[in-house]
Amino acid sequence: MRKAHLVAAALTCLVVGAIVDAMAGSVLGHGRRTGLAEAAPAAQNMSLAYFVTRNGSQAMVDGKPFHFVGFNNYYLPTYSPWPQGRTDDVDVVFRDAQNLGLKVMRTWAYSDGETEWNAIQPQLGVLNETILSQGLDYVVATAGKHGIRLVLTLTNCLPSYGGAPKYVQWLGGTSITDFWTRPDIRNALKGYVRSVVLRNNTITGVTYRDDPTIMAWDLVNEPFNPGDDTGKVLTAWVEDMSNYVKGLDPNHLVMVGSWGYFGASTPALLPENPSDVYAVKFTDTVLFPADRICHGEDSSAILSLPNIDIASMHLYPEYWSFCTSDCRTNVNVQGPQTMRANLTERGFLQLCSPDCRLTFLRHWLGLHLQECARIGEC
Ligand SMILES: *[C@@H]1O[C@H](CO)[C@@H](O)[C@H](O)[C@H]1NC(C)=O
Ligand SMILES: *[C@@H]1O[C@H](CO)[C@@H](O)[C@H](O)[C@H]1NC(C)=O
Ligand SMILES: *[C@@H]1O[C@H](CO)[C@@H](O)[C@H](O)[C@H]1NC(C)=O
Ligand SMILES: *[C@@H]1O[C@H](CO)[C@@H](O)[C@H](O)[C@H]1NC(C)=O
Ligand SMILES: *[C@@H]1O[C@H](CO)[C@@H](O)[C@H](O)[C@H]1NC(C)=O
């Protein structure tokens, strides 16, 4: 059977009239956009009745193609337990999004650590029920009311809001690689994931697993495993976690919030990977070694996994530079000529004009679509 994937591009740099954070998610079916599958809402309560499924590379709702523009807003579940955050942020964001015709929002369904404000999991394995019911439950319920579907991210490779580095710290690990390889750390994450996926929403009375408001589970935000040029470690982790989530919940699509870096299975595409000015700038040396252009992701290998439904790439062309044939050599800036000029001659930010970003996007997305077709997934 030929299976295929939806492609979601997270454009953190291309703001298209978005609300707070800038992310445009688009599902590319057969290269055309046919409009919104679900009619614009007249009433407040949209009560989404059907799951988003996929038929090959086509997203479907109730037997019809589902096309959407979406946005990223990671912090709503954290603001929501705060009364003012609930009214001034959650309610307003979903109301405005509905008015704009936006259909999908991606947000954090995790937050870990004693010091995090409104942490869902203040200590390992201890969930705060008040925060969950006033936070995530309220966000899911309000999204549904406004006819907006959610991509729920289950943890973060980066340290914001806890995430992988917090699990590593909790369990006495020393590096992000421990997160991908140590069974005790993986089991701790699985315990958390299970609690969320099987949670009964205290506001709607619907288990997350059974709620069509949720479009997809996003296993981890922006994963990387520096130093593993084979990409095998991360791919094995994604395989195991995607199988686990599908096992708990066959109703929802599953994806990874990946950067979209090409890896060992596609050596010819390595020179296309952007290198990372961002990494150098924010010298968080433990988590962002400057060589993470070969940072353990193998986009095609991940896309080939049976329980990964959606391809993802996160684009930061305002930060990236472009490397030459050896993807560890990020000094020699190459790539789309248009970007190169500004990257070599200018400072850090505003390296890339909107036109230049679009040039990069078309090129990068084109390569991903080609690759998706080559491996028989589109
Ligand atoms: C929305 O409307 C449906 C159908 O009328 C109803 O069953 C559901 O409880 C309502 N949901 C909310 C959150 O108001
Ligand atoms: C899925 O797509 C195939 C090929 O485009 C089509 O023949 C089939 O009818 C579709 N199935 C459903 C359930 O829509
Ligand atoms: C849960 O969070 C609320 C709100 O921050 C706090 O008042 C409460 O003490 C927390 N409960 C636990 C068990 O941590
Ligand atoms: C979820 O909670 C609601 C309200 O308490 C209840 O009616 C429903 O049976 C619960 N669902 C499950 C699967 O426990
Ligand atoms: C380079 O930067 C300048 C100033 O920001 C901008 O006007 C120009 O369009 C940029 N060129 C490209 C190719 O992005």
UniProtKB/TrEMBL annotation:
It holds the Pfam family GH5_mannosidase. Keywords: Glycosidase, Hydrolase, Secreted, Signal. SUPFAM superfamilies: (Trans)glycosidases. Residues 1-29 form the signal peptide. It is an enzyme of class 3 (hydrolase). It catalyses: Random hydrolysis of (1->4)-beta-D-mannosidic linkages in mannans, galactomannans and glucomannans. This is mannan endo-1,4-beta-mannosidase. It comes from Coccomyxa subellipsoidea.
